[in-house]
Amino acid sequence: MKFIIAVIQPWRLDSVKEELSTVEVFRLTVSDAAGVGQQEGHTEIYRGQRHEIDLLPKKRLEIAVNDSFVQPTIEAIKRGATGSGGSKVGDGKIFVLPLENVIRISSDEEGSTAI
């Protein structure tokens, strides 16, 4: 089992969810995030004051998958996050971590059946 964390552009969330559904990945958690990487920030002027915007809005997806779903999930996220325009700086990151155990609270199932 693996735990996949993806950080993507907020406007790409719908296309990533669509791509995930094509590989039969329907269970995920989505939360708002802010961060900066190679994309860096920018400067805005608000009411005559200069403000450095260095934490840009992102969406964080968390997905627990069985081993056979790891690569299809990664590929689906990449397709949805880049779109047809090709990949560019700021599209996001994908982290894959080992997942020791999963427990479904309602039924007490554990391991890969709980995913």
Describe the protein's architecture and organization.
The protein has 115 residues and is of the alpha+beta class. The chain has one domain (2-39, 51-114): 2-Layer Sandwich (Alpha-Beta Plaits). The chain contains 2 helices and 6 strands; from the N terminus they run βαββββαβ. It has a 4-stranded antiparallel sheet with strand order 2-5-1-6, with helices on one face. Helix 1 runs antiparallel to helix 2 (70-82). The radius of gyration is 17 Å and the shape is elongated. The relative contact order is 0.31. The mean pLDDT is 90.
- Share of residues in helices: 10-25%
Rounded to the nearest angstrom, the radius of gyration is 17 Å
At the fold tier of CATH, the topology name is: Alpha-Beta Plaits
Q: How does the helix and strand content classify structurally?
A: alpha+beta
Q: Would you list the SSEs in sequence order as H and E?
A: EHEEEEHE
Instruction: Name the poorly predicted regions.
Output: none
CATH architecture: 2-Layer Sandwich
The total domain count is 1
**Percentage of residues in DSSP E strands:** 35-45%
What kind of assembly state do the chains in view correspond to?
single chain
Mean pLDDT: 90
CATH class category label: Alpha Beta
Q: Give the overall shape, derived from the CA principal axes.
A: elongated
Q: What is the topology, as strand order, of the major beta sheet? A: 2-5-1-6
SS elements, strand count: 6
* Main β-sheet description: 4 strands, antiparallel
Q: Given the structure, what is the number of helices?
A: 2
